[in-house]
Amino acid sequence: MLRKFDYEKMPVVEIVNEILLDASKRGASDIHFDPHADFMKVRIRIDGALIDYTEVPNSIKKNLVTRIKIVSGMNITESRLPQDGAIKATLQDVNLDLRVSSIPTSNGEKIVIRILDYSMSVSGLENLGFSESNYKKVLQMLNVPNGIVLVTGATGSGKSTTVYSMLQRLNREETNIITVEDPIEMDIEGINQIQTNSEIGLNFATSLRSILRQDPNVIMIGEIRDTETAKIAVRASITGHLVLSTIHTNNSLNTIERLLDMDVERYLLASALTGIISQKLARRLCPKCKTARPTNEYEKRLFRKVLHKDVSQIYSAEGCEYCGNGYKGRIAIHEVLLINQEIKDALSEGIVKEKMRELVYTSDVTTLLQDGLEKVAEGATTFEEVLKIIELEDDDRIAGSMDLKSSLDFVDLTNKKEAPTERVERVAKEPSKPIVTPQRTASQTVRPPEKRVETSSASSLGSVKRETSIPPTPPAPPKNDLLERMKFNAAADDDIDDIFSEF
Ligand SMILES: [Zn+2]
């Protein structure tokens, strides 16, 4: 429901304050001020999803933008170029720490305010949703006095929260911790934090060189973005420092590859790398309205294949006054890889990717899909949510080295699928969920993706002959489409074969 302000009477200063306060209290991560031709729409992002908040009439649009630019320290006479600013203030006892960005659009300036919220990291590493075994591995990584620990994931996957929580844990009197960040997202007492400043040439690499002369025990690098930073980070870690950093990749295996792509020498990486924590965020089920339901056949089967156990009951999102849509807050899903000697040896010897995958995923690693499904079984989130955020393609590739490949029997399933046209029609007929967009013709829609064919031929079950026996079919469906259909199919127990044939 849109919030209404009395735009005629209420001063702009108060409107801005109220929007900032209210968004912050609701746990929003961002506030968007989108200029339209006739009004300005304000949206807030809660638990990863943008929702409409209010509409500001054109008459005060300009004043509102100006007010935000003033309090965030921007140049109000400049509206044709992008600007960055920040707001640090206390309003009604709420501490606000905001990053503000403006860009010119054809309808005027668009402002986005990021609300930095550290309440999660303040609550400690043990409250980040790590499973017991993953938590132990993380502690093990932090107990090593030198080496690199990397946290990986997409933007907004909570990497910073995890890194700050680790820093808090390491923050002791006898330890010299120095960070180099862009931006500094949280001030931690007792830690030396450096903000990079590219305008004067203070980037990650130059800061790091100086940091090494400051007798550090622990170094945190906001993000490894380039080769130079990656190399210095690795060198710092093998000269007796514990280095924490983040990198933008999906999982452990991709992280190793990314570092090698950055020209980090294999033998150095092998000796430096201590562990990799990959993470994603799933929306957490609202504790007040989540409703237990029996698992359907498809879900049962997936639990059995992925977790090797029978799960007969999970929870679904309902929605109540407290939460709105059935979810409240988020929970992290992890893959934690502790680099063992075998992986180190393989790394320095220059092993091929397939072999490395085998090594990584046949050790005691819980994959993101496994951890996610565990959290579904525990009632922390929903089956749909986990399937939405974890790329099934990725995970079945991962699964290619595990039991899953034979048990899910991808090859047979892709072979025995029904004619694509029929399925599309049947799915499209479902009235409540328009799963296939009307414009898309049947021939464009359903087929097992190319990758499946590769997977099946690579698996022990597959063979060249098998591969060629798959009839030529049109291009793969877009991922969302597939997921929509999976959700639909998950609800209809009798469609199991169809679902599996989609993989
Ligand atoms: Zn609820």
List keywords for this structure.
single chain, 503 residues, alpha/beta, seven-stranded mixed β-sheet, six-stranded antiparallel β-sheet, 41% helix, globular, disordered C terminus, binds zinc ion
Report on the architecture of this protein.
The protein is of the alpha/beta class. It contains 23 helices and 15 strands. Strand 4 and strand 5 (94-105) form a beta hairpin. Helix 1 crosses helix 2. The radius of gyration is 25 Å and the shape is globular. The relative contact order is 0.07.
Element layout with pairings:
Elements: H1 12-25, E1 30-35, E2 39-46, E3 49-57, H2 58-71, E4 83-91, E5 94-105, E6 108-115, H3 119-122, H4 132-143, E7 147-152, H5 159-170, E8 177-181, E9 192-195, H6 204-211, E10 218-221, H7 227-238, E11 242-247, H8 252-261, H9 266-272, E12 273-285, E13 291-294, H10 297-307, E14 313-316, E15 327-338, H11 341-349, H12 353-362, H13 368-377, H14 383-389, H15 392-399, H16 404-408, H17 410-415, H18 420-429, H19 442-445, H20 450-458, H21 464-469, H22 479-491, H23 496-501
Parallel strand pairs: 7-11, 7-12, 8-9, 8-10, 10-11
Antiparallel strand pairs: 1-2, 1-6, 2-3, 4-5, 5-6, 12-15, 13-14
Helix pairs in contact: 1-2, 6-7, 7-9, 9-11
Bound molecules: zinc ion.
